[in-house]
Amino acid sequence: MNNVFAKLASDFFSTIVFLAVYLITDNVLLATGVAIAASVAQVIYAHVKGEQLGFMTYASLALVIVLGSATLLTNDPRFVLAKPAIAHFAIGAIMLKRGWMLRYMPQIVAETIPEYVTIAGYAWAALMFALGAGTIAVAWTGDLKLWALYVSVVLISAKLAAFAIQYVAFRLLVTSRIRAARA
Predict the structure, then answer these.
(1) How far is it, in rounded angstroms, from Cα 101 to Cα 115?
(2) Residue 147's closest CA among 15, 30, 25, 34?
(3) What are phi and psi of 95, to 5 degrees?
(4) Are 117 and 60 in contact (CB under 8 A)?
(5) End-to-end CA distance of the chain
(6) Distance between CA atoms of residues 26 and 144, nearest Å
(7) For residues 152-167, average pLDDT
(8) Contact (Cβ atoms closer than 8 angstroms) between residue 67 and residue 35
(9) What's the pLDDT band for 173 if we cut at 50, 70, 90?
């Protein structure tokens, strides 16, 4: 589980840096510049350590550079604020693949309720699209405090709630199926 959180923190490193610097300094341009530098430094550090970088790392770097540069050139924070939405849309699109979630499930879940796992995979995709749309709506307002609250509280809380609901539902469904099979 720690590995999952480490990978998520790595994938969203530039967003975390942007948010932290912005909350400390209240300066969008400084936060954007530091986020761009941090993202580039992250990739260089990984190369120096000989780590393999995935597609998401390079995609995140490209988004940070392009959207961050647009923010710096136009002095409009909405460009960089849209980055998490693009990531959510991309992840949502990947989650539209039928059965993607089965490989992440314990064997008993994958074997007992595969149809529900597939439905949950589509529900996660819908959640990612909804959160991405919400991020765009909040970014469009240009209110950085509202955006900071949204990305640090709403995005995380929605995913944690969905995970908890899924866990309880899968546990109940597996238990029910096993009991029915024994009867």
Answers:
(1) 11
(2) 15
(3) -70, -10
(4) no
(5) 35
(6) 9
(7) 94
(8) no
(9) very high
For 168, the 3-state DSSP assignment is: helix
Per 3-state DSSP, what percentage of the chain is helix, strand, and coil (rounded to 5)?
85, 0, 15
Q: Where are the domains of the chain?
A: 1-76, 82-183
> How confident is the model at residue 4, as a pLDDT?
56
Please, which pLDDT band fits residue 145 given cuts at 50, 70 and 90? confident
Q: 90 and 135 in contact (C-beta within 8 Å)?
A: no
Strand, coil or helix: 162: helix
CB 80 within 8 A of CB 86: no
Burial class of 36 by CB neighbour count within 10 A (0 to 12, 13 to 18, 19+): buried
> Is-contact 104 64, C-beta < 8 A?
no
The percentage of residues in the chain with a pLDDT greater than 90, rounded to a whole number, is: 57
Tokens found for residue 166: 């899924």
Phi, psi at residue 26, to the nearest 5°? 60, 30
How many H-runs (helices) and E-runs (strands) does the chain carry?
A: 10, 0
Query: ∠151-155-159 over CA atoms, to 5°?
Result: 155
Q: How is 35-90 classified by DSSP, letter by letter?
A: HHHHHHHHHHHHHHHT----HHHHHHHHHHHHHHHHHHHHT-THHHHTHHHHHHHH
Element (H, E) at 166: helix 155-182
